């Protein structure tokens, strides 16, 4: 793809260096290749010269032998929608094709195969089982060898030096065991002392915590008692104020009623006095009328009128008095 371009191609070095087993003799193109591309490809092959399937050749010689200098034969196909130029396939004229052995081919094939997750897990399990079997066999053989060595040492007779060394070792072992027992007893005693100290410390802490809780509870009760006393005093004060207001309202009500009674009495007295005065005025008026009637009757000398007039005036006076 890159070599078919006339200009200098943009080569991805990581891609080209990743190619293994590239035979430069098979690179061919229809256009002239720049020297930069050829030198880079030669560098790739030289850097991978350790591969067993790489055949190093001179690039320019291989190119001349393959006929890179001339254009390949093409056939033009004209269709309804497009025109295409097809390159006529040619056989490699050099005859230097790369041939590898079946073993190398299988190795490359196995290396190119990507294991799945299940295959990888099965392979790891197989390897693990093989390692465990090998370790078990090694341990079994080691135990059998140790058992044989112990039996050999038991059956073998000891000389004087070995017997003395054995007795000394036995003595040292017994002394070490006794010292260990003493140390264990001392350690046990120290552990009991430490445990007892911890128990006392925990008990003291619990007692202190209990006292602290009791103190806090008493303080809380005192605080609640003070709050209740304050609330009680507030309630008493409010009750006293309400009682005082009620008394004041009652006093004002009584005073207002007395004032209304006095006003009503005064008004009643005034009205009574007015009625008496009006009645007196009416009586005076009637007396004057009676007096006038008498004078008229005396003038006219009519006895009948004189008898009727006093009776009518007397009835009016009685009604007014009532």
UniProtKB/TrEMBL annotation:
This is Cilia- and flagella-associated protein 45. It comes from Anolis carolinensis. GO terms for cellular component: motile cilium. It is found in: Cell projection, Cilium, Flagellum. Residues 144-248 form a coiled coil. Belongs to the CFAP45 family. The keyword Coiled coil applies. Residues 181-300 form the Trichohyalin-plectin-homology domain. InterPro entries: CFAP45, TPH_dom. Residues 294-322 are annotated as: Disordered. Keywords: Cell projection, Cilium, Coiled coil, Flagellum.
């Amino acid at each position: 793809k890159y070599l078919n371009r006339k200009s200098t191609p943009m080569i991805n070095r990581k891609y080209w260096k990743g190619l293994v087993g590239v035979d430069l003799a098979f690179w061919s193109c229809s256009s002239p290749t720049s020297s930069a591309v050829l030198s880079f490809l030669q560098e790739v092959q030289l850097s991978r010269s350790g591969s067993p399937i790489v055949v190093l050749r001179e690039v320019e010689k291989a190119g001349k032998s393959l006929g890179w200098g001339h254009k390949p034969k093409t056939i033009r196909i004209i269709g309804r929608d497009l025109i295409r130029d097809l390159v006529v396939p040619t056989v490699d004229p050099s005859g230097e094709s790369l041939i590898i052995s079946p073993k190398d081919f299988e190795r490359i094939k196995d290396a190119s195969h990507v294991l799945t997750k299940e295959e990888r897990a099965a392979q790891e399990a197989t390897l693990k089982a093989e390692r465990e079997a090998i370790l078990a066999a090694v341990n079994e053989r080691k135990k059998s060898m140790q058992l044989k060595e112990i039996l050999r040492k038991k059956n073998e007779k000891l000389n004087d030096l070995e017997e003395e060394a054995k007795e000394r070792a036995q003595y040292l072992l017994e002394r070490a065991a006794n010292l260990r027992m003493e140390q264990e007893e001392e350690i046990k005693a120290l552990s009991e002392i430490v445990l007892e100290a911890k128990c006392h410390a925990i008990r003291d802490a619990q007692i202190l915590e209990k006292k602290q809780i009791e103190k806090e509870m008493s303080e809380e009760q005192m605080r609640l008692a003070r709050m209740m006393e304050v609330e009680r005093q507030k309630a008493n004060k409010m009750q006293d104020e309400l009682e005082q207001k009620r008394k004041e309202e009652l006093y004002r009500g009584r005073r207002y009623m007395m004032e209304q009674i006095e006003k009503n009495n005064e008004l009643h007295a005034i009205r009574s006095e007015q009625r008496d005065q009006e009645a007196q005025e009416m009586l005076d008026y009637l007396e004057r009328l009676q007096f006038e009637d008498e004078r008229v009757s005396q003038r006219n000398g009519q006895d009948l009128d004189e008898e009727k007039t006093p009776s009518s005036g007397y009835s009016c006076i009685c009604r007014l008095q009532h």
